[in-house]
Every structure is written in structure tokens, then in C-alpha cells.
Design goal:
single chain; mainly alpha; two-stranded antiparallel sheet
């Protein structure tokens, strides 16, 4: 069965489940992992700096965020906004795991819980990013939320996939072959910048943009009946591969295209278009495929956006 692209596909609302009542607990595994990467970055990276190591950091960070986090995890595994061969999906999801935030199942559950909660009339401060920046950083990077009455999850085919089960169990160990290759090519400098600094930048950047995207910035749409609304973070469009157009994403969560208007850079969608031209991707969902008019209210118009329709239409071939 093809999932509903604007639904929270893995989450099942159970009787009495609530997005409000819960406690924030220290997450031992993720806290130690993220903390170790940060300590190594701050303590070793300045001493081991070289321009080649910095280049490795830029290439691996950008490449993994593009192929893995944005396209593999978010637009394919979570939202199913395009179809592709299973072998390609697995490669993209492996790259997403190598970003170093967590395994694919944790990423699905974390995303879908927040997605569902923000659509409710109200939700816990952890899920809404309501607390001050320092508190929110500690919560999101080092803690987890345990709801008193949580919903259930069914990960479907992904949850039964043996390869994804392997990645979930070994997500931290996936850095070892990368570190070994980097050490062989460039020594400890490449390892620290290509693994530790990359993971720290990815984890911290993911939190920081997510924090801002639910606090301040431009808005074009309001989602009716949702307790938490999203904002765009224009300066982060390129480093997030288009994910920073978060107001657009809340409005059209199942769309493979997130940067919807002229001037809104979306490298993730550009990569999907490239795969489509190669015959590796098809059935790409765009805003005008999703039937979201009744769920949205327009609050502003992006400069130079097409005025023919309040919902962006399918781009011309090759755009």
C-alpha cells in the first residue's frame, strides 16, 4: 500500500495518547556519543587543522547531509515522497546513518513523534522547541522525552528490513570503516575533521536550525488547527540542502520539493531530479499532488512567486 504522503506514516494514535504530558530524561547513549564528538572536535581539531582535512570535512558533511539526511532519511524513508529501487534506498539510508545522529528507526520515530505532536492543539515544550536556546540544546542533543501516554509505532516494511535492523544496531560502528579509510589517506587530521567535527556540526546544526524553524523567521502558510507553526530559515537553505524552508515543509510535508519559490535553494530536490533523469527515481510528489488547500491558510506571499495559485504548481520540465 502506498502511504499517505501528508500523514505521519509510522505513528498510530492509541486511545488516550497525549502529546502534552511527559518527562525529559537524560539519554545516556546519545549524550555520551554527541559529547565525545564535541570534546574531540574542540580538543583535537584546532591542533590537527589542515586545509586538506577541512576540505574533507566540507565534502563529507555536505555529501552526507544531501544524499543521506535530506534525500535518504527525510524525503524517502520518512515521507516516501518519491519511489526508487530498494538498492538505491538502502544506499541513501546507509549514508544517512553515517551522518552520525542515530539509526534509521530512531530517526523515523523521533521525526514522526514531533510531526504528530506539532499537529495537535498543544504539545510538550520538548516537541515544540519552546524553551530557551540553552535548555532546548541540552534537551535535544542529550535527552529524550518519555510521554506518559505515548502513541504506538509501526515502521512497516522498513522495520522488517534486515539491513535497516543491522544499521539500527550498529549506527555508531558505521563510522569505523570511514575512520579507517580517512586514516589511511590522511592520518589523524582527516579522521578528526572527517568524523568528529563532521558529526558535531551535523548534530548541532540539525538542532540549531530546528530550534529557529519553530521560533522565528518568515512564514507563508499556517496549518489549520496545529498548535505549533513553522518558520523558514533562509540563511540555512544551502547547508541544510533545502530543509530550512521549514514553513513550506509543514504546509506540504509529503512534497519532495521543499524550496518552492524562486530564489529558494533546494539541493535535495535538485538531486532527486537528477536521479529521475537517470531513470532511478519516479512518482515524485509535489505540492499540487497533495490536496492540502483545506488544511492551509496563506499569510504572506513570497516575492516573485507565481500568483496564479496559492499553492505552488508542478515546476516546468528541467526547472
Amino acid at each position: 500500500m502506498v502511504p499517505e504522503r501528508c500523514a505521519v506514516n509510522s505513528l498510530i494514535e492509541t486511545p488516550g495518547c497525549s502529546s502534552v504530558e511527559g518527562k525529559v530524561r537524560w539519554d545516556l547513549i546519545h549524550s555520551l556519543w554527541n559529547g565525545a564528538m564535541l570534546v574531540a572536535s574542540l580538543g583535537l581539531a584546532p591542533m590537527l587543522f589542515s586545509w586538506t582535512a577541512f576540505t574533507v570535512f566540507l565534502v563529507l558533511t555536505g555529501g552526507s547531509l544531501l544524499l543521506g539526511h535530506s534525500v535518504g532519511f527525510h524525503r524517502r524513508l520518512i515521507h516516501r515522497s518519491f519511489d526508487c529501487p530498494l538498492w538505491l534506498e538502502r544506499i541513501l539510508v546507509w549514508v544517512g546513518t553515517c551522518v552520525g545522529m542515530s539509526g534509521p528507526f530512531w530517526m523515523i520515530r523521533t521525526h514522526d513523534l514531533r510531526d504528530w505532536a506539532q499537529r495537535q492543539a498543544d504539545c510538550h515544550d520538548y516537541l515544540a522547541h519552546r524553551r530557551p536556546m540553552a535548555t532546548d540544546a541540552w534537551w535535544q542533543i542529550h535527552c529524550r522525552l518519555e510521554l506518559a501516554q505515548p502513541p504506538a509505532f509501526d515502521l512497516g516494511a522498513a522495520g522488517r528490513d534486515p539491513f535497516y535492523r543491522f544499521l539500527e544496531a550498529t549506527w555508531m560502528a558505521q563510522q569505523l570503516p570511514i575512520a579507517a579509510l580517512l586514516f589511511a589517506l590522511g592520518g589523524w587530521s582527516w579522521v578528526v575533521w572527517g568524523v568528529c567535527v563532521r558529526i558535531t556540526a551535523s548534530v548541532s546544526g540539525h538542532w540549531f536550525v530546528g530550534h529557529l524553524a519553530h521560533r522565528q523567521g518568515p512564514q507563508s502558510w499556517l496549518v489549520e488547527d496545529a498548535g505549533v507553526q513553522a518558520h523558514d530559515v533562509p540563511w540555512a537553505a544551502i547547508p541544510t540542502m533545502g530543509e530550512a524552508w521549514h514553513n513550506n515543509h509543514h504546509a506540504f510535508p509529503g512534497s519532495a520539493r521543499i524550496g518552492l519559490y524562486p530564489g529558494q535553494s533546494d539541493w535535495g530536490f535538485a538531486f532527486i531530479q537528477l536521479l529521475a533523469r537517470l531513470g532511478l527515481v519516479w512518482n515524485i510528489a509535489l505540492p499540487d499532488d497533495l490536496g492540502r488547500r483545506k488544511a492551509l491558510r496563506r499569510v504572506a506571499y513570497t516575492p516573485d512567486a507565481a500568483a496564479a495559485s496559492p499553492i505552488p504548481t508542478r515546476p516546468a520540465q528541467g526547472s
